[in-house]
Specification:
This protein is an alpha/beta fold. Helix content is about 30%, strand content about 30%. β1 (about 5) and β2 (about 10) form a beta hairpin.
């Protein structure tokens, strides 16, 4: 599917290394963003989460950075075709090379999933941490995030302990966590997290996506209904 149509915007994804997926929609729907004036989307791909946050947070200025040239070009196209094109800026750059004079109130990232391996295909590179390890993600996020800002991400639940250890190294505290599974019969697969520099009790949530095939739970519908056409 070259174009994915949402309620208030569309995503052209013909050339992008990664396509529209459940993880990105979940994170864009779940992240706390209403009090964020300046938002950074790390590894923005074709611009999905940036557009979702523009829809949710009407006063925000959003910056998306994407290392893959073709994906960043499609992000530019998708932003230009939206009603929020004046509020979103896309840069074809890595996080390591990105510079900003301002700190961000919210930083969000749907990061590479797996440890570094030698891969050449764009989709494989996008899904692995060849170009951006968890260590680098948290290091540079800690520099770019404002004192009272929020960092939100989604990771495989198997990496929970590792990610928490690295986050602690850079002064982060987890304030919110959502454990996700596809249905009641399977194990928890993904984990959405929100971090800040303020230590507080973690608010833990659980989300099941489906009751049965294409029969979605009330909680999943409530979370994503502002975006999917069929909800």
């Amino acid at each position: 599917m070259s174009v994915f149509q949402f309620k208030k915007f569309s995503i052209e994804q013909k050339k992008s290394a990664m396509k529209v997926g459940t993880d990105g929609v979940l994170l864009g729907s779940w992240v706390s963003c209403k009090e964020s004036d300046f938002i950074l989307d790390i590894g923005c791909g074709m611009g999905l989460i940036s557009l979702m946050l523009a829809q949710r947070s009407l006063a925000s200025t959003i910056v998306g950075i994407e290392i893959d040239t073709l994906s960043s070009q499609e992000a530019q196209l998708n932003i230009s075709n939206s009603t929020w094109n004046e509020r979103i800026n896309i840069y074809n750059t890595s996080l390591q090379d990105f510079n900003s004079k301002n700190k961000f109130d919210l930083i969000v990232s749907n990061p590479p999933f797996f440890p570094s391996v030698k891969l050449d295909q764009p989709r494989d590179i996008a899904r692995h941490s060849n170009k951006l390890s968890f260590e680098e993600l948290l290091k540079y996020t800690s520099i770019l995030l404002s004192e009272k800002g929020i960092f939100s991400t989604i990771i495989p639940v198997d990496y929970e302990d590792c990610f928490f250890q690295i986050a602690k190294k850079y002064g982060f505290f987890c304030n919110r966590a959502c454990y996700i599974k596809g249905n009641e019969m399977v194990k928890i697969k993904r984990l959405m997290l929100e971090f800040s520099f303020t230590n507080s009790q973690i608010k833990k949530e659980h989300l099941t996506i489906e009751k049965s095939r294409h029969n979605y739970t009330d909680r999943y519908i409530a979370l994503c209904k502002d975006f999917y056409l069929s909800m």
